[in-house]
Design a protein that fits this description.
Blueprint (H helix, E strand, L loop, with lengths): L1 H14 L5 H5 L8 E7 L7 E7 L6 E4 L7 H18 L3 E4 L8 E4 L5 E2 L9
Parallel strand pairs: 1-6
Antiparallel strand pairs: 1-2, 2-3, 4-5
Length: 124
């Protein structure tokens, strides 16, 4: 983190504008990140009611829990969708030859990225 802090200070000194480090830590987004938006009940139970997810903003998938009863089928469908997304990211890999310090290995060229928006904290 010290290199990032030094870079941020140098940029702030040269441009005259400071930027939050959290904006620089996670700049790269996959071409198709999985967006997951959950709706839950308020209160101590916090029962999940619905989940909207997908990689295409124009075709999200909506998973609904029954008004009363078990949420297990909805959560199983959610697990299937997330697992399928992670498996899809493992389809493309490349072979890295052995070097003097490392053996030959396979490296995945894409990593799964799951975006889960959080509510902004209330300012007082």
């Amino acid at each position: 983190m010290i290199r990032l802090t030094s870079l941020m200070r140098m940029r702030a000194a040269s441009t005259g504008n400071a930027q939050r480090a959290s904006q620089l830590r996670h700049l790269h987004l996959s071409d198709q990140p999985l967006m997951l938006l959950a709706l839950r009940q308020t209160g101590p139970a916090a029962r999940p009611l619905a989940v909207m997810l997908g990689t295409d903003p124009h075709r999200p998938q909506l998973l609904l829990a029954p008004p009363s009863g078990s949420t297990t089928p909805m959560l199983a469908s959610l697990a299937d969708a997330v697992t399928a997304y992670i498996d899809a990211c493992q389809r493309h890999s490349e072979h890295l030859p052995a070097t003097s310090s490392k053996p030959a290995r396979r490296r995945y060229t894409d990593a799964p990225q799951i975006l889960v928006p959080t509510p902004r904290p209330c300012s007082t």
